[in-house]
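Worked Example 4.2. Consider the chain below.
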Amino acid sequence: MESGAIEVSVEGGELLSAGGVLQGWRIAVVGMGYVGLPTALSFADEDADVVGIDVNEARLAAINDVQVDLSPRDWPRSVRALQQSALRLTSDSAELTAADAVIVCVPTPIDEHSTPDLGPLSAACATVVEHARPGQTIVLTSTTYAGCTQDLLVKPLQDRGFRVGTDVFVAFSPERIDPGVVDHAPEQTPRVLGGCTEACVENAMRFLTHTACELHVVSSPEVAEMTKLLENTFRAVNIALANEFANAARELKVDVMEVIAAASTKPYGYMPFYPGAGVGGHCIPCDPHYLLWQLRARRTNSPLVEAAMSAIAARPRDVVTQAARILADRGRSLKGARVLVLGVSYKPGLADVRESPALAIISMLNGQGAEVAYSDPHVAEISVRGVGRLTHQPAPDEQHWDLVVVHTVHPDQDHDWLTGQSAVLDTTYRLAAVAERHLL
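Applying the procedure from the previous section yields the following structure tokens:
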């Protein structure tokens, strides 16, 4: 493609046959996680024949039993798609060959050293290449480094003898899914698309139209890959700034939430971000490290991003330090203290504990000798390094705690009982009415 973005706004259904549906299309979605499952449902809603492929048999069984964490909007969609066989689930990668389109939605995590773990993505792409056939369109959606589509799809396909843009069509279109936020449903969110050739763009647009309210086409997969990195790095840097401002406001005895609310009245040049105990989920704690990892290989620094990610990683330790300070002011130490962590999911209203700061907080509190428990009606059980398995405490208000660390405030919970506790560390900055409240 020629350099420079091709700006295209395509309303759903414009490029499809009469009726605006995907009837007759065979679409394979590789990876049935928090991105892949909603993506598969969006295609099933448009009458496509969808097969969801995942190597995790337990995950497939949970989806079949509708025992997975879904939004209220996706529950009925999932039941309907499974009952009507619009969505079939399998671990058999041979199903890929029959697909007209293949969407890769596998996780791209980091390891304990913040180094990208490309194992799942590399394996998935290798499988897709192995089963590719002429006429197929392959779209990678997993967040990754700039150039990954070329490395893991285009070059291996060429090695098999395919001409990309003629025999097969390859594009990158990063997912934009905000779990638990109804107003940010994928179909209501614009989507970026970068194809290897004009023909790749055109073929990908034919079915991706139904996964977004509009498509913004850019000049290459690399532009689309870096777009996703910018989106989540932007959030990471601004969350780190919000945390730093919260620390400054505490030192100066100013209400940081009132400051943020006041700054938010400015209609331009400002976007509100809020302080907290850290960041969780798959995006913000992980994605910027793909950029940093790629730059390090080129002996290039990104000091602002590096500082932001270091500050975010240190935030759970700041929580534990503040917890120790609060208890010390009451004449006791963390050792032997009964500490409750209230809410362990990384985000309100979800059961998702991926990269949740609560897990690190519990581990560090336990490491300093505290007797730690947690209460979260959305999460029945967790596994914490150095601690083992813990189960949800269903009636925390009936017990005495030396300290309650509020990590996640779920919208369906009553927090009035916190007023009766001797000390509360509010890492959410949202429980102003609680007596004996301390801020991070």
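The longest strand covers residues 26-30. DSSP finds eleven helices and 15 strands in the chain. Compare this with Example 4.1 before moving on.
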